[in-house]
Amino acid sequence: MTRQIRLLTKLSLYGMFGFNEFRHTRDGKKKLRFCLMGALWVLLILMLAGYVGLVSYGLTSIGMGYFVPAVLGMLVSLVTFFFTMTKAGPMLFDQKSYEKQVALPVEAKSIIVSRFLSMYLTDMMLGLVVMLPGMAVYGVAERPGLAFYLYGFFVILFLPLLPLTAASVVGALIAGIAGRWKRGNLASILLTMIFMCVVLVGSMSLGRLDESQLGAMMEEMALQMERQIGRLYPPAIWISEAMVSGKAAGLLLFLGVSLGCFLIFLEILGRFYGRVCQMLSAREARGNYQMERLQAKSVMRSLVEREWRRYFASSVYVVNTLTGELMMVLLAVGVALAGREAVDQLLGLPGAVDRTLPVLLGAMPVIMPLTACSLSMEGKSWWMTQTLPVSRRELIWSKVTLQLIVALPFYLVSEAALLVALRPGLPEAVCLLAVPAAYILFGARAGIAVNEKFPVFDWDSEVKVVKQGASAFVMVVIGLVSAAVPIIALFVLEGKAVFVYGATVGALLLLTWLLDLGGKKPCPPYRLD
């Protein structure tokens, strides 16, 4: 059984990160793209490690180094839960993949463990990237004993288990509830989005400290922070007690709860796994189809409706590509209800919202537009799309139009909330409206351009395209860079915000036009190496 788990996990990881394709492809350009993506991953990891190091240094410098392991452990757990929840259903309970593997001479339990192990290893990498820089900063500043590093090793090793188990349970419940409804995909999308809102709002409550608390003594502030962390995620306190205070009981409690919940869930799932996969993939077919009156439509309208149906047919696709729009609405509502100062405290950047609100609002949808995956989502049917009597420009702009239609309600809600709450003057109102609109248009067109460079048509699971595709990762980098440049300019050119916003809108529209100049180029061919 151990050999079966090892081979299945190895196969899953090779397919997940594209190692097999890199090893066996004879296309030099494709190998070069893999190397460039590896360099970008290294750059992103270094940026994340640097940010974690700065946060840890800030806590130790104000005498709150005790909370470094707790804060980092809670951060890793929340991020692991947040991202695993959206992919747990498709990865764990994929009926098609299960039917292929169960026909092999392997046990069903080996399939389950290998799928869990694949997600666990990727989540543990996140734990390493976050925990190691924080531990290094704390070690230099506080000079703890050997127990700190020894307990830290076990914490990193077992940290993903509890959020992974909880996310798998939630993902299975959402898939099960949605599968019983007539509109299963829509139900799954709504339930997941609601749960994501709860997680985001709950995690933001950690930084909610009023002025009297900020003015209190540092000890009172530390106690308040400890109570909030303990209320939001008690295992984080156990981690801190083990690593900082050297309490073995805290480590044993953390390991016992994490490993116990995981093993119990694994045992229950192993007994009913095949039945669960069948139940979650079951759909009720209606036999009352009737021919209705046919209607002719324009080419663009037909293409947009086609994209609309394809988009909402995948809950993984919708949930992941609506995260930016959802965060845009949460930011706007937070500023409108709590004020700019409260949101500054949550972000940890004093004055950031007051100076850069339009940029922050617009950059969020750019990080993951649906167009970054729309070509790849065609999959092995891409060759059929290429046979349609439509031009490349029409095909591209049908996908861009869908992105604009999907983002429009979130944009209107965000702008309405801010305009009513802040009552800005005419120049500020124009900037507040124009900058996010330019970002949304740029992100939609840039997503298509990036996906043309990094198409993935030979996927078996939508998770590989949406969460692990190179296009999605490149768009994250583009979104961060497109926001960082004007933000730096706003802080450097203080008092000239209108000029910076105008230049930002002009630059984004110019880039969108330049990306659209290649309209006569052929679409990327469907090719499997």
Give your account of this protein's structure.
This protein is mainly alpha-helical and 529 residues long. It has helices at 2-17, 19-24, 28-61, 68-92, 95-102, 108-142, 146-158, 161-179, 184-204, 211-214, 218-232, 234-243, 248-281, 299-311, 315-321, 323-338, 340-347, 352-367, 371-374, 382-386, 392-422, 426-453, 462-466, 470-492, 497-515. It is globular, with a radius of gyration of 24 Å. Mean pLDDT is 76; it is low at 206-218.
Question: What structural keywords apply?
Answer:
529 residues
**Rg (C-alpha, Å):** 24 Å
* Helix-residue proportion: over 70%
**pLDDT averaged residue by residue:** 76
- What class, by secondary structure content? mainly alpha
What is the topological layout?
Elements: H1 2-17, H2 19-24, H3 28-61, H4 68-92, H5 95-102, H6 108-142, H7 146-158, H8 161-179, H9 184-204, H10 211-214, H11 218-232, H12 234-243, H13 248-281, H14 299-311, H15 315-321, H16 323-338, H17 340-347, H18 352-367, H19 371-374, H20 382-386, H21 392-422, H22 426-453, H23 462-466, H24 470-492, H25 497-515
Quick take:
The protein has 25 helices and no strands. By secondary structure, it is mainly alpha-helical.
